[in-house]
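User: Before I run my own analysis I want an independent prediction to cross-check against. Here's the chain; please return only the structure tokens and, at the end, one sentence I can use as a sanity check.
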Amino acid sequence: MFDPKKILDDFLGSSIPGTGTSVRDTAGKATQMAKDNPLAAGALAAVLLGTGTGRDIAGGALKLGGLAAVAGLAYKAYQNYQSGNAPSQTAEATKAGEPELLPPPDDSSFHPATAPQGEHEFALVLVRAMIAAARADGHVDDAERARIAEKLSLSGLNSDTQEFLTQELNAPVDIDALVAAAVTDAQKVELYTASRLAIEAKTRAERGYLDLLAGRLKLPDSLIDHIEATIANVKTPTPQA
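Assistant: Structure tokens:
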């Protein structure tokens, strides 16, 4: 059995329970790790999703599990959107010292425990969404898939997890299935948030994919702007090549 919540933790660099460290602490050295032992100690995201873009999450988000981090960011963006404030006001509030990211309230439709299909199943949806977004620029070609398959075989991951990741990387991206899997309004916001976390959206293909996803999810432009602002506030600067 593979655990999609654990994969999501690895993708986002969330805290490793009982260790006081995070996957992102280790993945910050992703370039060297990719040479030495690419999938050891949580470098999964560095190998599957690249080493430089989109996954450098900082601050309080790392103190939450991946599923709770996505939910917390989506809830925060939605609350800011509902308040009627401009996204620029969110950025200014953060600079002034906004409280660290928290999971949504227990009674919120954004809380993972309220997922109609269950936390496990929705975590799986978010993992698929992140992989689909990461593939939007065409980076995962046949040669890259072969390289990843080889590294997966050396990773120490259980066979079910390896098989799932390999299948996701080889299967055509089905944006309709992803959209249909978000069964509540809150999950639509979370699905876009997870997808946006997976990439920096610097290329036309990446931006086009996110625009298409937002349109299929029927998310208002102003809400997308708040998601962008909220995510920007928890991203560390991406080093220039």
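Sanity check: The CA atoms of residues 156 and 167 lie 18 Å apart.
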